[in-house]
Amino acid sequence: MTALLWTVRYEALMAARRKVVWGTVLPLALLSLLLAATSPVVTGHDDPAARVGAAAVLVNTFCTLGIGLALTDRLRRAREEHGMPELLAATPTGPLSRAAGGLAGPLLTALTPVAALLLLHAAVLSVTGASPAPLGSAAAALLTVILPATVLVTAFGGLLGVLLPVAAARAVVVVAWLWACHFPPAFSPVPTPTGTVLSPLGGYPLVAWAHAPQVWAAREGTGALRPAADDATALLNLTCVLTTALVCHALARLVGTFRRHGAS
């Protein structure tokens, strides 16, 4: 556990020193907060908790994508830093701790301002509405939707980052993210996860646990992958997102290992 914590600390500090993280994440976090305060999609709801749930959709659209773009080159940079993989391998940490710390540290840095702004928005609504429900919605959205989605887009971006040039990988991440989150069947020429239990937008947990509008679950479609939103389907959506993230992360580490050994 100590080795994992020190790895997380090291990776978090390294991410905090990168201008691309702050230059990408902070503007998108502020944009999400501005839209949450002014957009009719959010302000049109009378229930303050529903406003936070709708605001979480904006955060998960813009901020999560921004974090994924900022960290797309994370594994490539680690591989290209001469001697760093060997140095880390020589430390008294296991491969699992290094892999978990390498993912958790940058996410901790990048997600902190996003979480702070969403909780601030929820706190204001809790005070003005004299109810703790908005804060509960924010906490549920952060833990069950935004964090898992960020893990997924970061792992997916990292996988593309070791397979493609970084600029191309980032372009693919944008297209894939929008297709998976905001291309409903009526607008997608190919089958889309949007509105299904596979979508990283997290419509099901947002509806079931964060009081978001129903539109984000089973969006403009029917079928086995678009059931009604309840606790069971919300848990299924969360499980699918985390499983996909683990697969992407494992593949990225595997590709990175093969390429490192092939170059040595």
In summary, what is this structure?
75% of the residues lie in helices and 0% in strands. The chain is mostly helical and 264 residues long.
Give a description of the structure:
This protein has 264 residues and is mostly helical. Helix content is 75%, strand content 0%. The protein contains eleven helices and no strands. The longest helix is centred in the middle third of the chain and has 35 residues, at 95-129.
Supply the key terms.
globular, 264 residues, 0% strand, mainly alpha
Decide which structural class fits the backbone: mainly alpha
* Low-confidence regions: none
Task: Determine the strand fraction and express it as a percent band.
Answer: under 5%
The tally of helices reads 11
- This entry's quaternary arrangement is single chain
Mean pLDDT: 85
Q: What overall geometry do the principal axes of the alpha carbons give?
A: globular
Helicity level, as a percent range? over 70%
Distance linking N and C termini: 31 Å
Number of strands: 0
Largest sheet: none
Global Rg? 19 Å
What is the fold's blueprint, element by element?
Blueprint: H1 2-16, H2 19-38, H3 40-43, H4 48-70, H5 74-80, H6 84-90, H7 95-129, H8 133-163, H9 166-182, H10 203-209, H11 231-263
